[in-house]
Amino acid sequence: MKPYRAVIYDIDGTILNTLNMNMYPLMRIIKEETGEDWSFDQVLKFAPYPGMKVMEELQVRDREATYARWVKYVNEYEEKATLYEGFEEVFQKLHEAGIVQAVVSAKTREQYEIDIVSKGIDRYMSTAVLADDTRTHKPDPEPLLECIRRLDLKADKVIYIGDSHSDSEAARNAHMDFGYARWGSVSDAGILSPVCTFEKPLELLNLLYYNEL
């Protein structure tokens, strides 16, 4: 690794444990749309996908309406998103060290308010590029490029932290270093040559060491 001026995070599976709150409502959607009962293990393959990509894969009739219903079920799910252990310390120490922090995620603005702003996490983020902010989404590099445009930084001064193949590909397409958040990943498939693999959030504090060299 090398010194970085900014750390950009994915949200689901990286900052927040959202697996159950996304997958169980998806099982409900599949039942409503197809009449089929899918197991948790069967829907798990969709965990890394952006929401509309899931709708495409399932070939639902009205993708936008079905996706909106899925979001509604997610927001109503009793077991809410939880911050992975160690992140409060990570956010605070990177902030104190003067490292810029930001978010790039396929979440809608409404979901961001519920999952991030309500927890006070947004106070550490200089910007958040979300689903409505770009025309294309990960693995396309547009969201990451929009983020560094807002931060007025070059790609080689930034690392993107994510848990999925689409995160890895987005970083590669943006010519940006990728840090693999393995603690939230459901599969190593497609994660090619990350600059570092982090097994737990507190390991992100190793970034401070490289900034001191």
Textual characterization of the structure:
With 213 residues, the chain is α/β, with parallel strands linked by helices. The protein contains nine helices and eight strands. The strands form two sheets. A six-stranded parallel beta sheet has the order 5-4-1-6-7-8. Strands 2-3 form a two-stranded antiparallel sheet. Strand 6, helix 8 (165-173) and strand 7 form a beta-alpha-beta unit. The longest helix is centred in the first third of the chain and has 16 residues, at 19-34. The radius of gyration is 17 Å and the shape is globular. The N and C termini lie close together (11 Å).
Summarize the structure.
This protein is of the alpha/beta class. The termini are close together. It contains nine helices and eight strands.
How would you describe this structure in keywords?
two-stranded antiparallel ribbon; 213 residues; globular; 6-stranded parallel beta sheet; alpha/beta
Distance between the termini: 11 Å
**What portion of the residues fall into strands of 2 or more residues?**
5-15%
User: What is the helix/strand order?
Assistant: EEHHHHEHEHEHEHEEH
**Number of DSSP strands?**
8
Sheet with the most strands?
6 strands, parallel
| Spatial ordering of strands, largest sheet | 5-4-1-6-7-8
For the residues shown, what is the average pLDDT?
Answer: 93
Task: Give the helix/strand layout.
Layout (H helix, E strand, L loop, with lengths): L5 E4 L6 E2 L1 H16 L5 H4 L7 H8 L4 H14 L5 E2 L3 H10 L3 E5 L4 H7 L12 E2 L12 H10 L6 E5 L2 H9 L3 E5 L14 E3 L7 H7 L1
